[in-house]
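Why this split exists: single-chain examples teach little about how molecules sit against one another. For that reason, every record in the complexes split bundles all components of an assembly together and asks for one structure covering all of them. Below is a record exactly as it appears in the raw files.
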Amino acid sequence: MSKINQDSKPIGEKNENEIANLETLGLSQRQIIIRRFVGHKAAMFAVFTLISIFIFVFTAIGITIGPKGFQIKIPGWWPYSITDIDPEGAIASTCNGGVTGCPTLDLVPGFFDGDGIQIGKHPFGTDIIGTDFLALVARGAQQSVMVMFIVGTLGVTIGTIIGAIAGFFGGIVDAVLMRLTDMFLVTPTIIIGALIGFRYGNLGVGPLALLLGFFAWMGLARFVRTEFLTLREREFVDAARVAGASNRRIIFKHILPNAMGVIIVSGTLLLSGAILSETALSFLGFGVRPPDVSLGLLISEYQDSFSVAPWLFWWPGALIVSIALCVNFIGDGLRDAFDPRQRRRLSFKGKKTAQNLNQK
Amino acid sequence: MMLVIVFGASFLAYNLQAYSSNPLSAFGESTALNKDFLIAKTIRDLQLDVPPPIRYFSWLRGIIAGLWGEFDMGLSRSNIPVIELLSMAIPVTIRLVITATFLAIILGITVGMITAIRQYSRFDYVITFVSFLLFSLPIFWVAVLLKEFLAIQFNDFLVNPVIPPSGIFISSLVFGFIIAGFAGGNRLQFLSVLLGGAVFAGAVLSFVSATKWFLEPSLGIFGIFFLALTSAAIVIQLISGLDSKKGIYAGFGTALAVTLLYYPLQSLMSEDATLFTVVMMFAITIITGIIIGFSVSSIDRRVYIRIGLFTALMSTPPLIIDRFMREFSSYMNSDAIRGRPVPTLGQRNDFLSPEQQENFWISSLDIAIHLILPTIALTLISFAGYVRFTRGSLLEVLNMDYIRTARAKGLNERTVIVRHGMRNAMLPLTTILVNDFAGLIGGAIITEGVFAWKGMGQLFNDAIRNYDLNLFMGIFIISAFLTVLANFIADLLFGVVDPRIRIRK
């Protein structure tokens, strides 16, 4: 049957399929997925960029964990922290007619504008009182990344569990769980987020992220449920049941691995959504509070000084955008890797071959 | 069923808010002599001695009373009925959201369709990257950028609106690339379209710069005629194809008629016009279009009537925009504006003189100009989603067997894509559209914050900061209700556009 189907497809597509089949000959499912993902150039570039950003922001100023008073500090390699003030350094790099604290980073070669390539004392500049902006941005990015991962982990876990139970058992369990999901779904995330953030934002970023995570699972639960509804009717589930497998075993060993694609892909989307909503909440004043910093908070603090000191606005924004963009590209690459139906992007060589075959 | 969900969710939200807020915290450091009295008064006013789950039902009674017309959402903490506050804020937010949604839908579907047709082209890759970029942009950041570059710098530019030659050159080239990307084709076609587009844009921009058009903008009859012809061409291409002679008569005839109506309609658009005038204008042009469509053919009239109708619908806005533009210079030079027309804050200018506020054209222009920045911000953000969705959905449909059948029957590409492809690709889109509209309310909260609009966002902010439970619940119930309503409408729409679902029912 499948043979007939393939033959009836237009020539170009048939060849594309044949090439795709040749690419994956004799490999296990996991190998195919990994190979497809590695072959996705944009996604690999995003992975590389994202890891570099993580390493940079977490090693630069070190990590501070724990509640107030019991903090464990791991020092970083950058000489300034968010509490150090360096007014002399800020005055030393004055530009644009008296604006202090301009970035000393200069990537334009010397023969072009006179100054050579240099990093300087404060490559990202300083704020008005002389706090090093690289330290501030790195700290803000740490917070945002932490929120992103906590919300993501929690959302994926809860969403998968609820979706799996609802989809697998069906009937009354499904109805109750889905109505519960709808109940959470009709509440705009930003409303609940603001409410929680306003009350618990002062506890620090960890508890805030935990609370936000409890309201981030609904979309994923719906996807997982749909996937489970189709998968539980498949033959291998019947086979497992005949062989005497318990419900738990069927869910975790047989269905869940098959639903992994959906979970990972919507999980990545959840991550990029989480970082955007954290920064939005902090921007509105419902998230991380001063004296601690977050990328959204930095933008909201310096939005009015855009025309005077634009770097105070560009750096945090650029970090948010690049983190979210990388996560989105990774998500896209994962979707292509897991769902070859959606992937019709051939390698350059493959495309050429297909074209040649087409013309014959 | 959906109502039960709304009530469940409101119960949850009510308790969440009640337990997480402490209206008495404001008195913590108070040194007022009557502190105890104030605390007691607050407790009595807000019924803080009643546990929240029970207090919820006294709130719910007010909502249910809406069934017999005594709708009551309680008082806000400043003793103004919540309904009153909401009824002032909702129109503002809706105004913001509707324009942005429409723009995003139209642009998103168009661009998405083109990227699907030109899959794997350079244009497709560029748009894919741009839409990912837009997905990743925080709206508040975009808003601040827009304020700086579109408002402040554009206002500076208006002092002496001469575009430097380099500016003209670069923007013409960019325009040429976009047009050529849309058109596609082989390398020679691409280059010629690029060149043509760039020359056209360069000519328009030079004209604009040389005549200082921005100071006294107007489209003039030629501009209107050109826009009408363009929209006619698009409508004809979509509905009957440009090779249909009667279609061309209907479309271009309507375009010509609307342009000729420019002079007689001027008297209608006088100083004391109202919204009704605008509706009247649309009615007149649409009737003209229908008559023309009716008269070009004696068979298949429906097709040509549709061409006339849509051409008229699309070419009337330029007539009205032209009228607004001629009001622009007096608006810009008035005391309230002082030559800096694009505002960064607010939803309307309160310093307009009374006669300006009474003038329909000036007050509407004022509202429209205040809408520009927030609308662009919201549109940019939601545009990307529609592009991706339309592209994916259309590509999936184009791989179906019935598309192959349609092609095998010998239908031309236009019919295949518009009739057989797009119609089916739009089905899942209805659900997304409606859900997005409800989700936009959330996005509007942030946008309103950045642009200091006094809409739902502002109220929401107040509600959270003042621990205003009734106000919070008012906003909550409105947005939850909108979501539910949106789902309901999506189901209905789905039935309308997809006959299979109707039959199953």
